[in-house]
Design goal:
CATH class of the largest domain: Alpha Beta
Mean pLDDT: 86
Strand order of the largest sheet: 3-4-2-5-6-1-7
CATH superfamily of the largest domain: P-loop containing nucleotide triphosphate hydrolases
Number of strands: 16
Number of domains: 3
Low-confidence stretches: 401-409, 419-423
CATH architecture of the largest domain: 3-Layer(aba) Sandwich
Distance between the termini: 69 Å
Radius of gyration: 24 Å
Helix content: 25-40%
Shape: globular
Number of helices: 17
Structural class: alpha/beta
Largest sheet: 7 strands, parallel
Length: 489
């Protein structure tokens, strides 16, 4: 029987309120692993119970099969709208179909609710179908609703739970992130603003040996041996090269790609999903970013550089963050440079969720310089510096005012994300907000202080006053001193 968590019920209530308020097409945002499919199934079932027809649209046939299996698990009658499918039952009130099937049909008579999985993909004919059928209520599902123009199709986004909250609730696990000398994409050709996959694959093969050796080193040091791993490679040739190099070291990694037939890919993923699988790892480019649900994966390797795709970066990390018994964290080995490249945006989404559509986050990111990358890490322990302080939050190292930090090429360093230590954005806002109640600050002054610290307004954070600690007091004092000096000039 389908049973939803409190935050899932809260999300569905918010969607219903949106429809009652006049919204016609809404985006259901929730992090990867939050149970968007379960929420969708609850909506499908509720629509059927009212005597209406509902459909869920997915962009790959393999995802249709997975969704059908999930419905069957909850003993919910449904049909799969696909010619030749054994579950083709067009009379059922709940239908599962691929985007390609809907595009071929061009219509869906009698439909009351359409749920679009991975709605940020923005398939042209799906968008046209939504616009041409204004009487159909639409819900788009996405963990990364950043696509330009999404706000012209959907008029509202529902965001009731954040990645940070799901980590606190142990639905998801935090990441332990290590960075290494990345794939060098200097001067690489770009296609539609993103680095060419062929060129990324070719350049990725130059550090294949480093990737394998770092995996061996870190898994031995942290886990005492191999743990189930997924690798996001830069291309087909890169994936094959990685599989060979892992095999030379005695490890069974299997590479799959668009060149393999669907049945083979299903068989490989099914084998990898088994608790007693003999596979140490699975290697792919984009296949694992959608519909891949293997919660006992402990390690992710990022070896596909992205210039602008925050969506792909977040989707990839989400594949290893799913909770599982005995899993306290997931290891993320970054050979792509993506973690530093998208760090600010990721921390914003991690702590605050998504509260607007078409926000331009898919624009290409300014590449950090080698000096910026070096200065981002503590030279003593490799932890990422928390902004606004000269003291490493991990080991206590005091940074000299004139930085003498130099990067050590090829050495993998651990990053300590700012959003999973004591200095979270909510804690900072609570301690800054304290001044509005006890020191006569206006809310505007508090908000501007927060914005100076983090680069954005405290949207979505709760006004829960907490007495400032020494670090926050020191930061506020430093801003006052800077302000006074500026006035004197």
């Amino acid at each position: 029987m389908l049973a939803l968590r409190d935050y899932q019920n809260k999300t569905l209530d918010a969607l219903r309120d949106g429809f009652l308020a006049g919204s016609r097409a809404q985006v259901l945002y929730a992090p990867t692993g939050a149970g968007k499919t379960e929420m969708a199934i609850a909506l499908l079932q509720a629509t059927k119970q009212k005597g209406n027809r509902a459909a869920m649209l997915l962009d790959r046939i393999i995802l249709c099969d997975q969704t059908s299996q999930r419905l069957q698990r909850y003993q919910i009658d449904h049909g799969v709208l696909q010619s030749g499918h054994w579950r083709y039952r067009p009379a059922e009130h709940i239908q599962v179909c691929s985007a390609q099937t809907l595009e071929k049909r061009g219509s869906f008579p009698g439909l009351n609710l359409l749920i679009v999985d991975e709605c940020h993909a923005m398939r042209e004919q799906t968008v046209e179908f939504i616009k041409s059928n204004p009487d159909i209520k639409v819900i788009g599902l996405s963990a990364t609703p950043f696509t330009k123009g999404l706000g012209r199709v959907y008029d509202r986004v529902i965001s009731t739970v954040t990645t940070s909250q799901l980590v606190e609730q142990k639905v998801l696990v935090p990441l332990r992130v290590f960075i290494a000398k990345e794939i060098d994409m200097t001067g690489a050709k770009k296609v539609a603003g993103e680095w060419s996959q062929a060129e990324a694959s070719s350049r990725g093969q130059k550090i294949t040996g480093d990737i394998v050796q770092e995996w061996v080193s870190k898994t031995t040091a942290i886990f005492g041996g191999p743990r189930k791993t997924i690798v996001f490679c830069a291309g087909v040739n890169h994936g094959a090269d990685l599989a060979r190099k892992f095999a030379e070291q005695g490890y069974n990694f299997v590479a799959i790609s668009y060149k393999d037939d669907d049945q083979y890919k299903r068989d490989v993923i099914e084998e990898f999903s088994k608790p007693d699988t003999t596979m140490h790892g699975l290697i792919a480019t984009d296949i694992l970013t959608k519909g891949f649900d293997v919660p006992d994966v402990m390690i992710g390797i990022s070896a596909r550089p992205f210039s602008k795709s925050l969506s792909s970066h977040i989707q990839q990390m989400g594949r290893v963050m799913r909770g599982h018994p005995g899993k306290e964290f997931a290891l993320w080995l970054d050979h792509s440079g993506n973690y530093l490249r998208f760090r600010e945006d990721w921390e914003e989404v991690y702590g605050s969720g998504v509260h607007g559509l078409d926000d331009g986050k898919e624009k290409a990111k300014k590449e950090p310089t080698d000096k910026e990358k070096a200065e981002a890490k503590c030279p003593a322990c490799g932890a990422l510096w928390s902004s606004g302080t000269d003291i490493c939050s991990h080991c206590g190292y005091v940074r000299p005012r004139k930085s003498l930090v130099q990067e050590v090429p090829g050495e993998m360093e651990e990053l300590k994300p700012r959003n999973v230590n004591a200095m979270t954005k909510q804690q900072w806002w609570s301690m800054i907000y304290y001044n509005t109640l006890h020191k006569g600050w206006s809310r505007g002054r508090a908000s501007h202080t927060f914005r100076e610290k983090f680069g954005h307004w405290p949207n979505g954070l709760k006004d829960l006053p907490v007495m400032p600690n020494r670090e926050v007091e020191g930061y506020i004092r430093s801003r006052m001193i800077a302000y006074i000096k500026g006035r004197r000039r």
